[in-house]
């Protein structure tokens, strides 16, 4: 199962997007799994060649109401202990932090929403992440939760609002608070699914998101392909 990639999805609109063709180009078979059904796939999820955990509108602290979150944390912990590759995006990154024993909590600086660059650390500049987020290239932020940096993890990226935007664990674990997988068509679905977030952010938010998406989404797909190729070549 070394060339199978499982993708855990918390919502159908938060899917692997441009990650999927990039992974398929690298020889992976990409299989999406609904998070609520993860128990049925747990053994395989612990053993496949690559696991990606996507985002969603719930938080790690919601596990009592959404017990599959605890199962995901256990799966991630098992994989990381075995040095099996995991990529966590947004909620997925927060689940990775929790699996490594770090606290995850609502941020005190509000929701970070929109296209903006991250500041890569020295280690981040040497990481495959630089292919998609280097040189001030904008990525998509859409989160309000944050986390402590797990013990033993390497910080790769920050923003002025939230310091912990990306971290790595060895060469096999990568957590991204921001999104690198989205394209314009996917985001139009998000604009409906997460209309509440957009309204709270202000009356100009939707028009700004659409304008910035038109400007940045196509180059993000190209950058993402280089990032995926670079990262999986090291696994």
Automatic annotation (TrEMBL):
Cross-referenced PROSITE patterns: GATASE_TYPE_1
Task: List residues traversing the bilayer.
Answer: none
Query: CDD domains, from UniProt?
Result: GATase1_1
Q: Name one Pfam family in it.
A: GATase
Query: Which SUPFAM superfamilies has this protein been placed in?
Result: Class I glutamine amidotransferase-like
- List the GO terms this entry assigns under cellular component, sorted alphabetically: cytosol
Q: Which InterPro entries does the annotation name? A: ChyE-like, Class_I_gatase-like, GATASE
Query: Where is each Glutamine amidotransferase domain found?
Result: 30-184
Q: Which NCBIfam families has this protein been placed in?
A: PRK07053.1 (NF005458)
Q: Which PANTHER family match?
A: GLUTAMINE AMIDOTRANSFERASE YLR126C-RELATED
Record-given protein name:
GMP synthase (Glutamine-hydrolysing)
Q: Please tell me the species this chain comes from.
A: Bradyrhizobium canariense
